[in-house]
Amino acid sequence: MNEKIVLITGATDGIGKYAAMALAKMGYHIILHGRNREKILATASTIQNSVPGCNIDWVEADFESLPAIKKMSQELHEKYDRIDVLVNNVGAQFHELRFADEGVEVGFAVNHIAPFLLTSSIIDLLLKSECRRIINVSSEMHRNMQYFHFDYIYGKEAYSLYDYYSNTKLANLLFSYKLSRVLEGKGFTVLAITPGLTDTHLNPQRTPELVQRAVPVELGAVSMIEAVTSPSLQGKNAIFLDKDAQVEPTSSASYDIEQQDKLWDMTEKLLGMKFTVL
Ligand SMILES: NC(=O)c1ccc[n+]([C@@H]2O[C@H](COP(=O)([O-])OP(=O)(O)OC[C@H]3O[C@@H](n4cnc5c(N)ncnc54)[C@H](OP(=O)(O)O)[C@@H]3O)[C@@H](O)[C@H]2O)c1
């Protein structure tokens, strides 16, 4: 029995849900995260029915809400004295420009601010594990951006779903690479991954063309499952796994240290906190 505790955000649908089931079958203790209580309970019960005796727990938080993420972190601290693996998987696309409570564009809030806050809030629980693995789910779409558009954070440029979403997927890499530097020497493994184009509910406009090009979730989850389970990745940092779980270089914009630092500092400022690792 594998005793590792894995928290997967956005585990009520798509790639996260598939990976949760697959990892439960391998004996991992899974903490499902979702925003919709009914979907969370249904997912937990589907997994329990398929894997009798598995360890499944859940937490709930809408990633558009900072107080909800803080409450989720508090609950995790009440229940757990360590978490071995955090998979920052939640990702969303938005058809219209909209703003989250803290005044930033909602895609940036859900895809970047939320995982930053969650990671920082439970870094002490990860530090208590020997595994200390953090997996950030990005996308090949980060390559659409020549540089990170800070203007998008406040919706200052014309809205396009693909540009704004791609910008957040670049943010996932800037975050992941900076996090690797911040945690250097502390025994962490920080990986970024892409599932590749996968047939999920991410883009509600599932055109026949998109469905035809996309792979099913069992293939989309390959890199995530490998990132969680592979012993050979232990201690690796600032790397990106492609859809086949092969190490692949990312865009030059993602390696820009100045942009990584700027985004990190700006995020801390927005949240009014410092990412502290004791
Ligand atoms: N699918 C692709 O082709 C593809 C390609 C590259 C990268 N990715 C990345 O892969 C990750 C997973 O995407 P997916 O394709 O599996 O998408 P999905 O099927 O839409 O699943 C997304 C998960 O995130 C949750 N979520 C969305 N917004 C949330 C919010 N505001 N608060 C809390 N949870 C929220 C969803 O909850 P509900 O169940 O309540 O909706 C669901 O559990 C994302 O980071 C995405 O950017 C996907």
Automatic annotation (TrEMBL):
<dbReference type="GO" id="GO:0016491">
    <property type="term" value="F:oxidoreductase activity"/>
</dbReference>
<dbReference type="InterPro" id="IPR002347">
    <property type="entry name" value="SDR_fam"/>
</dbReference>
<dbReference type="InterPro" id="IPR036291">
    <property type="entry name" value="NAD(P)-bd_dom_sf"/>
</dbReference>
<keyword id="KW-0560">Oxidoreductase</keyword>
<dbReference type="Pfam" id="PF00106">
    <property type="entry name" value="adh_short"/>
</dbReference>
<protein>
    <submittedName>
        <fullName>SDR family NAD(P)-dependent oxidoreductase</fullName>
    </submittedName>
</protein>
<comment type="similarity">
    <text>Belongs to the short-chain dehydrogenases/reductases (SDR) family.</text>
</comment>
